[in-house]
Write a structure and sequence with these properties.
globular; binds S-adenosylmethionine; alpha/beta; Rossmann fold; single chain
């Protein structure tokens, strides 16, 4: 099995990583990802609770970030409800919301969503003194000036690690990795979480809050797509492996396909907040709330009602494709003509769809999330 010592592979993967995680643009992401919206809608009470505990009597603008916003559609209800509450509690205060994602994100779509140019209802027209911005800055870097952030929000984004530490020999995701390979992903995940929190700690005003919803591994070892019986990442790996057996893709292409992700356990999420020697703890960040939740796959739930396997397969695969396609595309040899790469990917997802159509039981992508709210102590500098 390739390990973290697989240096050359790591070097070449490093520069690729940021390219491999964009969601499909053109609004495809929000349309295909209703489960992600359910995850965020389920956090509205946590967001409103965080706002209720803040002292909003300030003259400077109230600042909220949505870090890893994709096209802004999945969070629009939750952001709108949060900002309406801020407006109600602080009628005179300017509000600014900053949508952030990686530079290759489709920010045009974010503005179309927020300014009501899509069919998704928006909040932007009914909150006055509201200013909408975007920042194409990784959450591994400072996004706003020190001590100016009131509410940092992020959903389903910080499982993406800033570097792929090594290739995974017989799988495509760290949940299928073992030994030194698994440890290398855990270490990269730890470093990224630590630095992301340290940067947020500097950005937050005293009394500010973070509401962070992340894919994780729950107390029973469950993670995204693993709850129904057929494990989604194992299926991805098996079908991708079958393409090497059919000589559709090469062994190097299989090995170069690695999701740049780490799913953290609750202990991994909470560690920086609990160790008095940790800079995050020392900056005054404390957990107010942490829990794991399973948000059911809307397509599997619908299938349980309608029982039509073909419909389930047809509706379910696009949501997988919306976030996974860039990773599989990045594994393919770039010297292949674009149409050839597109055909391989179509074939790959078609085979997944055929599999679900033929034997739908156990498939589904229940979300397994860690919901975490943290506060920066009002006394912190
Ligand atoms: C699965 S999508 C989630 C989108 C949305 N927050 C939601 O919950 O539906 C993950 C998003 O995180 C973004 N992302 C990944 N790494 C990032 C980073 N280092 N900084 C900012 N955004 C990042 C991706 O580009 C993508 O848009």
């Amino acid at each position: 099995m390739a390990g973290p010592e697989d240096g050359n592979a790591a070097m070449s993967l490093k520069s690729e990583t940021l390219r491999d995680i964009a969601m499909k643009g053109g609004g495809y992401y929000s349309q295909a990802t209703t489960g992600a919206r359910d995850v965020i809608d389920g956090a509205v009470e946590l967001l409103l609770g965080a706002v209720a505990r803040m002292d909003l009597r300030r003259a400077r603008p109230f600042t909220m970030t949505d870090m890893g916003c994709a096209d802004g559609g999945t969070s629009i209800t939750a952001v709108g409800r949060t900002l309406r509450r801020v407006r109600a509690l602080a009628p005179e205060r300017p509000i600014q919301v900053i949508y952030t994602d990686l530079p290759r994100n489709d920010f045009s779509q974010v503005f179309q969503t927020v300014h009501g140019l899509t069919e998704i209802p928006t909040y932007a027209n009914d909150i006055d003194n509201l200013y909408v911005f975007a920042s194409a800055t990784s959450f591994h870097r400072p996004i706003v000036p020190p001590a100016t952030l009131d509410l940092g929000f992020s959903a389903t984004a910080s499982h993406y690690i800033s570097e792929t530490p090594c290739r995974i020999a017989n799988h495509v995701h760290m949940v299928g990795a073992e030994g030194a390979t698994r440890a290398a992903y855990a270490e990269q995940g730890r470093r990224d979480w630590q630095s992301m929190l340290e940067i947020r700690a500097r950005e937050l005003v005293p009394g500010g809050r973070l509401v962070l919803l992340n894919f994780g591994i729950d107390e029973q070892g469950r993670h995204l797509g693993s709850t129904g019986g057929v494990k989604m990442f194992d299926t991805f790996a098996r079908l991708w492996r079958e393409l090497t057996e059919a000589d559709t893709i090469g062994e190097e292409e299989f090995l170069n396909t690695n999701f740049p992700q780490h799913y953290r356990t609750v202990a991994e999420f909470t560690a920086p907040f609990e160790d008095p020697a940790n800079p995050v703890y020392r900056a005054g960040l404390r957990i107010e709330h942490v829990e794991t939740r399973i948000v059911p796959c809307p397509y599997a739930s619908a299938f349980a009602e309608h029982g039509d396997a073909a419909r389930f397969a047809r509706e379910y695969i696009p949501t997988l494709r919306s976030w996974s396609e860039t990773c599989f595309a990045a594994g393919l040899d770039p010297s292949r003509p674009l149409e050839e790469r597109a055909a391989i990917l179509d074939h790959f997802y078609d085979s997944y769809e055929a599999l679900v159509r033929a034997a739908p039981e156990g498939h589904g992508m229940d979300y397994v999330h860690c919901y975490l709210v943290a506060a920066k102590s009002a006394a912190a500098a």
